[in-house]
Design a protein that fits this description.
The chain has a six-stranded mixed β-sheet, with helices on both faces. With 475 residues, the protein is of the alpha+beta class. Among the domains are: 144 residues, no CATH class; 168 residues, no CATH class. The chain starts with 13 loop residues before the first helix and ends in a 9-residue tail after the last helix.
């Protein structure tokens, strides 16, 4: 049967082989698809969509923006707390209420010189590395902008920060152990309590090795056994993670570590970067002088306002020290921490004042000068004016805002004031000019606008959002 089936390929007729198929008629213009025509404002909308897309990426900056949007502004919470304390000043001064609130109420009473002193304290405390020796290191980093030099500098700065934070790190570890005791079952709690009592906060630098021995040889092995036996993946495990992080920091915070990293940096600069021996010896002398100042009795900077403020916020976040809620204190602390982020393009200062019985809450934003890729400031950045924004909320007068552009000793000033003061604009302008002159500055232009509509907060957020396209570190 298969032999009877034949498969053959059909052969086309010769007429159709040489015939050219006629081309289909096409419209030269074709039909217009109106859905593909770009509408007016589409580019702006596309830019906004791209910005949202970038923010939706899992980046450090997007987490910062998200947290910033969820956190109320410092003025919204801090002013409520300070106004509440201001209203209780007479009662607190009459030996009533919390001693912490009394100290803060006393610190809020300021004259012009005290106001300036508090602002200078905040400005100088923006970074731990503000002494003259660190200016030398910044210049070296700018002159030797290679990865190896910056790595050596980073190792030294990490050791420096760890050594001068031994007390704070030890306290954080002890606090975390106290917190951990409330998160684990009773049999383990008693054992952890007895081990934690072997740690000491007295002379933390001198007792560093003793505390490290207790932590590494007793507490950490005990916690490892607890995790292995209980498989605890709850809050206790999070607390243990933070504890181990602080232990790792404490483990590299000794005087020997600091000396080793500094000498390693000096050797690298001397033999790898060919820095003259006279220069490295000068740096060593400056550093020794700096260490002597840090170790002396005058090294501890004290400020009555901020000492009492941090104590009140810390206690208030744990318990109700006034009629205000714990959430208000916690949000205020978070706002202060957000100001220290590397993504914040301004130095943010604030000042709650009781001046002759008048309450005022003021904030100052000073624009940071962005360095170039080699770590130095470009000529364009140096020649551009520094922008400063100020807000004043004076209880009896109203809300004021000021925008200042400062270049060398010349300034352009724009101020908005409550409409009720429209008839006093010339008096305000003369007063502002006199203040600038008294401080060695020239007010080239002073513009007074009777309008108390808040605009500074929008300018700050706009500046922060601009950094999205410059910095985006993905996790």
């Amino acid at each position: 049967m298969p032999d009877n089936i034949r498969i053959t390929t059909p052969v086309s007729s010769s007429d159709s082989l040489n015939r050219v198929s006629p081309s289909k008629h096409t419209d030269a213009l074709g039909a217009v698809d109106t859905s593909k025509i770009q509408q007016a404002g589409a580019q702006k909308q596309e830019l906004g969509d791209n910005f949202k897309f970038l923010l939706n990426r899992n980046s450090v900056f997007s987490k910062f923006i998200e947290q910033l949007n969820q956190t109320p502004g410092l003025s919204q919470n801090m002013e409520k707390i300070m106004l509440d304390i201001f209203g209780k000043t007479e009662m607190l001064m009459a030996d009533g209420g919390s001693p912490l609130l009394k100290q803060l109420a006393q610190a809020m009473q300021m004259d012009p010189d005290t106001m300036l002193e508090n602002l200078r304290f905040q400005s100088s405390g923006q970074t731990k590395f503000s002494d003259g020796i660190f200016k030398v290191f910044r210049e070296l980093s700018a002159q030797n902008a290679d990865t190896a030099t910056r790595t050596k500098l980073a190792e030294f700065l990490s050791a420096y920060d760890g050594f001068f934070s031994i007390g704070d790190t030890t306290k954080s570890i002890i606090d975390q152990l106290e917190q951990l005791k409330m998160q684990i079952p009773n049999p383990y709690r008693d054992q952890l309590d007895s081990l934690a009592k072997e740690l000491t906060l007295e002379r933390p630098t001198d007792n560093l090795q003793k505390n490290l021995t207790v932590l590494k040889n007793k507490i950490i092995p005990f916690l490892a056994k607890y995790i292995n036996a209980s498989n605890d993946f709850g809050r206790a495990r999070d607390t243990i993670t933070l504890l181990v992080h602080n232990l790792a920091r404490l483990n590299t915070s000794s005087q020997e570590e600091l000396d080793d990293k500094f000498n390693s940096l000096m050797d690298y600069l001397r033999y790898e970067r060919n820095i003259p021996a006279a220069k490295t010896e000068e740096i060593k002398a400056q550093f020794l002088e700096h260490l002597n100042r840090k170790s002396g009795p005058e090294s501890t900077q004290e400020n009555a306002l901020f000492r009492s403020l941090t104590q009140v916020l810390s206690e208030g976040s744990k318990q109700n020290t006034s009629s205000l809620s714990q959430a208000l204190y916690k949000e205020t602390i978070l706002s202060m921490l957000m100001d220290k982020s590397v993504y914040m393009p301004f130095h943010h200062l604030f000042l709650p004042v009781n001046y002759n019985g008048q309450f005022m809450f003021s904030e100052v934003w000073i624009e940071k000068k962005e360095p170039s890729k080699d770590g130095t400031r470009s000529a364009a950045a140096e020649s551009s004016p520094t922008k400063i924004y100020l807000t004043f909320d004076i209880r009896e007068l109203g809300y004021f805002e000021a925008s200042i552009e400062l270049l060398a000793n010349h300034a352009n000033v724009a101020i908005s004031c409550p409409p009720e003061l429209a008839s006093d604009t010339q008096k305000i302008s003369d007063g502002i000019t006199e203040i600038f002159t008294r401080n060695g500055l020239v007010a080239d232009r002073v513009y007074i606008r009777p309008d108390n509509t808040p605009t500074i907060s929008q300018l700050i957020m706009k500046k922060i959002n601009e950094r999205k396209y410059a910095i985006d570190v993905t996790i």
